[in-house]
User: Fold this.
Amino acid sequence: MIKHHPTFELLKSFVDGELPASLSAGIAIHADMCAVCQHQIAQLTEQVAEASFEFEEAFLDRFIVDSNDDIEDMPVINFDQMIDDITASNALTETVVKTEKQISFNEQSYTLPNALHNMDLGRTTHIGKLSRARIQLDENEIHTSLLHIQPGGGVPEHTHKGFELTLLLDGSFEDENGQYVKGDFIMLNGDHQHHPISPEGCLCYTVANDALHFTQGINKLLNPIGSFIY
Amino acid sequence: MPNEIDHSQLCLKLKAVAQSRDKQAFTVLFKFFATKILRIARGKFPNEAQANEVVQETMSNVWRKAHLFNADKGAATTWVYTVMRNVTFDMLRKIKGNKEDNLSDDIWPMAESMVSETDNYEDHLAQDNLLSVIDTLPEAQKEVVKGFYLMEMSQEQLATKLNLPLGTIKSRLRLALAKLKVQLGEDHD
Ligand SMILES: [Zn+2]
Assistant:
């Protein structure tokens, strides 16, 4: 059973469309597997929509004393012209029927989550029991990947200077804090240290805004490959 | 009370657009939404032409995708909001990252982003209604939360509008969020 969910703030920013594509996709994938968050997103969307289109005059006036200036600032758009242009064609956008896409790691095949369907995947690289395919979202310091861990593999103890999202797409893993299952949305920041291992193997969607930093003994030697994993 | 939205009217108009390509109905929808979309877009895009493009794109999608609206699943306002949010997301990604991959419809599929009436969670989550929870906050906090979360004003903007120090806005927001989290049961585990 899923125990780890995005925070309320993340869900709210997701609904507002203010998160980068990497995190937005993570929340969308989690919500596909989590009825609780799906419901909360639906409710938030309804409320934000209502507020966006309702509080226009009456509510805004409480905050914007000089609201007249705002309105005068508005450029004059020729709305009638816009309506004519838009309705000139009666064509309806055809709905694309989505077909499942598969991805395989080490001869194991997985269904690619819908949210990732049109993202570019880089070549898969391997190190020990870890395989990683970078997802090319071009979000500067934010790196997004699919990370596959073969049974018995793990990531040495490490911390992050930024944040690290691990979303379990399949399989399970465990760390100091317990076991994680398919659908769990695990967001860590620089304060956390952890050492996930996966006895049964797993596939994760990961988003991190910095290389990880190995903290333990000999593993410190691994620091140059920290950027490989996340 | 703020102006009440006539949801059933908007819903009927949207259905008329979908079923009979009714231009009059579309004009009513356009008049209701366009200036509001423009105002919101002006907050997100510094460039006027880009804000206008959000209006144009959003309303075009309303015209061309009206058949995807499912009245059983939610209000017309919710649907138009998702159309606008998706247009905005793709445009921002194009402007900031020079990426024209239009990922929004994969992230927020149009047909599924609404409350389902048959949802099993409907009953026990009914009290989670955010607005009613916000209404239980002390007046000072309520004002800040509504401004920040519902009107999407920045903390700096709120400080100016309410004529309060930024620190006060920040601490009110923190207090209010702590309360909301408890009430909304953020920790599911
Ligand atoms: Zn969840």
